Every structure is written in C-alpha cells, then in structure tokens.
Amino acid sequence: MMHLKEGDAAPEFGIKDQNGKLHHLADYKGKKVILYFYPKDLTPGCTLESCNLRDNYTELKKDGFEVIGVSADNEVKHQKFINKHDLPFNLLADVDHKVLNAYGVWGPKKFMGKEYDGIHRTTFVINEDGIIEKIINKVNTKEHTKQILEELSK
Known about the structure:
Blueprint: E1 14-16, E2 22-24, E3 32-37, H1 44-55, H2 57-62, E4 65-71, H3 75-85, E5 90-93, H4 98-102, E6 106-111, E7 114-119, E8 122-126, E9 132-136, H5 144-152
Parallel strand pairs: 3-4, 4-5
Antiparallel strand pairs: 1-2, 3-8, 6-7, 8-9
C-alpha cells in the first residue's frame, strides 16, 4: 500500500463513471475535490456516507467542492446505487484497483476474524492545485460532511 500524506500531489487517474464517461483528476484543476473511497455500493455504511454527502451537496458546491466517490464496483452497480439514493455526484468504477492502489486504500482488512483484501474507507480533500489538503482515515459515515468541514477548519 502506498502511503500518501497531506501536502503530497494527488495521484492522477483516468477511470469511468456510472455512465461510462472517463474522468481524470486533471479535469478538476482549479476546483476543490472531495474524493471519497468506499467499500461497496448498496451496503449500510456506504449508503449512510453517500447519503450524508448527498444531503449536504448544495452546501459543499457553494463552498466550491466537487464530490467524487470511488469503489471497485462496476458502472452498472454504481448506476443502481445512484438511482436508488438519488446521488447528485459521480461514482467512479475502479474495477482493476489502479486508483485504489495509487491512493493506498486497497489492502488487508479483517472482519469477524477473517482476513481479506478490500477498500479502506478513506476521504481525500484535494485543493485547486491538485495537492492533498486533508486525509480522513476514520470516516464518520453518519456525519461525514460535518467531519470534512471540521477537519478543514483545523
């Protein structure tokens, strides 16, 4: 796992969203980006996190943020997740784990005594120049927007 830190340049990527449209980090130059990595579409924690960002999306946009979710789910599953929960932002399908590995969020996990590789729920706040301003490793799924804004005000 790669270990990025605040102040590092955010790794560039090029992956497709729920509609098959290619997104590059460079497309967001000049904008602040909330890039959140989550384990799986349509699961309780990921739904709480995504819906919290949805419920605060207007405020985040007013503050100049773009919100982008990333998981290893495919485009079809992302589209179902967006449709079911009315998510107003793009979800990127990193099925080959290139971006997950570049950001260091794919690796060994433990659940109920079993070890497996998976996505570590992590949020990167990237500034207008493509620099990582904040990394949130212990995500509060229920109040993620509040958590992001509080971390940025420190």
